[in-house]
Amino acid sequence: MTARFTLAELVEATQARVINLPRLSGERFSISTDSRKLTTENVFLPLVGERFDGHDFLASLKEEGVSIAFCEQRYYDAHPTAKEAFANVTLLLVEDTLDALQDLAHFHRKRSSAKIIGLTGSSGKSTMKEYLFHVFKQAHQTQATFGNHNNDIGVAQTLLAIEADTEIAIVEMGMRGLGQIRRLTKMAEPDLGLLINIGPAHIELLGTLENTAIAKCELVEGVKSTLVSNGDDPYLEARLAELPLTPLTHLRYQLKDAQHKVALPDGTFQFTVEGVDFKSPLPGEHQVSNVLGVITVANALGVSTQAVADALASFASQSGRFERIHLDNGNTLINDAYNANPTSMKASLDAFFASTLEPHQARVLILGSMKELGEASPAYHAELVESLKARADLRAVIFIGEEWQGVALPETSSLYSDTEQFLQALQESQVQALNALNAEETIAYFLKGSRFHALERLIPPLESYKKSSQTLENTPL
Fold first, then answer.
1. Hey, which of 175, 323, 380, 412 would disulfide with 180, CB 3.0 to 4.6 Å?
2. What does the pLDDT average to over 85-96?
């Protein structure tokens, strides 16, 4: 992590109690939570998880040459015999090391002149982050959340990575319940907050979409200047109407802002905004809404609509997000396996079927189940299956995951309990849904499912799959 602190700053940021005070010096140290990668320039901050406790590595710090480390008071009190091992290490005692990490991140954020964009939503967060990063990096020193590191630890690490010359920092915020976005937004204090949408991704934890909106809109509590929200989302609109937004500039984006919208053969859309021509970087009408959100954010921070269009024209899809892969066996695969919930699943399937995938005659879906839907899970899975029956050009569906069990699946579908079971069937060329296709037909595969299933593992075996000699009658869904 880039941020560096003097001992005095470490104590100021975390209100730590110092044990074994070293000789005063002006040295500056960076924070490391990984005991395997420590150097003499690091302060070790041990984190605690369900199955690990980083404090167990404190005793070995002397061997690494590390001179300062954080330690929770409860661990220090519970290990009196280990205190001799700490004699040559300055310990910073705190109640909770995760709180300390976030305090340090907040301290570093406050001394940075970077404009912080904080964004959250039930789906599409990472795509929006990548869009924004691609737009702002054209003319500004820009940083963004790495991968999907959008939780308590990831947001802190993102803030601590802000460089001295960073002008824009895009911070993605995820959640698993009420109060978490509040914690993250108060740490990041975004200059601009972006609320993308509300969907059932968190329904198991929060019970209703209204509760999800309450949790997501906690973002407002930390925003310093400007709030941007999706004006087409009824749950966001209803919740924001209940909140005091007077100190903020509130900007909405809506699909009606896109003029002359035309669907293109590849599933993307062409449209204009304020006379500027756009083509959505990825397929699906929901991507038009995403682009409108990007335009609104960019305009608010001084980037012109034309500059946004110019930047997005060179945007390349990220791995696992509607990534088109041409397989060596002549088939095509759309890899959208990064994650899935009912909202994103429907939007991506609409985009897949709207795309012209010639010369492929057979469309085949490989769908992992959707996790964390609680009691509503059977209804959401059944609704999705029912929607597939109207797809006239769909030849086969492969369902993966126990959540599909009990749902009335189409006759030309196959059900596998997990990804490993389907991988074995691929390796043995025993996938009935694929073997039923005519040998000369080329296939357009579509992969999507919850991150739990890691469906991207299927790509190599699908590329080399050889149908068995068994041929079954083709029956449309």
1. 175
2. 87
Using DSSP's 3-state secondary structure scheme, residue 131 falls into helix
194 backbone dihedrals φ, ψ, rounded to 5°:
-125, 120
User: Cβ contacts of residue 353 below 8 Å, gap of 6+?
Assistant: 363, 391, 393, 394
Domains observed in the chain: 4-96 (3.40.1390.10), 112-312 (3.40.1190.10), 323-463 (3.90.190.20)
Q: What is the pTM of this model?
A: 0.87
Q: The tokens 């973002």 sit on which residue?
A: 219
Mean pLDDT confidence for 58-65: 78
The pLDDT score that the predictor gives to residue 472 is: 38
**pLDDT at res. 277:** 98
Taking the C-alpha atoms of residue 93 and residue 79, their distance in angstroms, rounded to an integer, is 13
Is the pLDDT at 176 greater than 90, yes or no?
no
Alpha carbon separation from 251 to 193, 248, 270, 300, 369 (Å, rounded): 10, 9, 23, 9, 36
Yes or no: say if 369 and 402 are a contact pair by the CB < 8 Å rule. Answer: yes
Query: CB–CB of 285/267 below 8 Å?
Result: no
pLDDT band at 273 (very low <50, low <70, confident <90, very high): very high
How much of the chain exceeds pLDDT 90, in percent?
71
Polymer length of the chain: 477
Which residues of 254-393 form beta strands (DSSP E)?
Answer: 259-263, 269-273, 276-279, 323-326, 332-335, 362-368
Token pair for 69: 């480390």
Element (H, E) at 195: strand 192-195
Name the residue with tokens 């290990």. 79
Q: State mean pLDDT over 259-283.
A: 94
Residue 19 pairs in a beta bridge with 91
Identity of the residue numbered 375: E
Distance CA 402, CA 386 (A): 18
Contact (Cβ atoms closer than 8 angstroms) between residue 13 and residue 92: no
Give dist(CA 365, CA 394) in Å, integer. Answer: 8
In angstroms, rounded to a whole number, what is the distance separating the alpha carbons of residues 145 and 150? 7
3-state class (DSSP) for residue 302: coil
Q: If you compute the radius of gyration of the chain from its CA atoms, what whole number of angstroms results?
A: 25
The model's pLDDT over 341-384, given as tens digits with 9 standing for 90+, comes to 999 999 999 999 988 877 667 899 999 999 989 999 999 999 99
Q: How far apart are CA 31 and CA 4, in angstroms?
A: 7
User: What's the rounded Cα separation, in Å, for the pair 353 and 225?
Assistant: 41
Rounded Cα–Cα distance for residues 270 and 441 (Å): 31
Strand partners for 170: 117, 144
Copy the structure tokens of residue 309: 């269009």
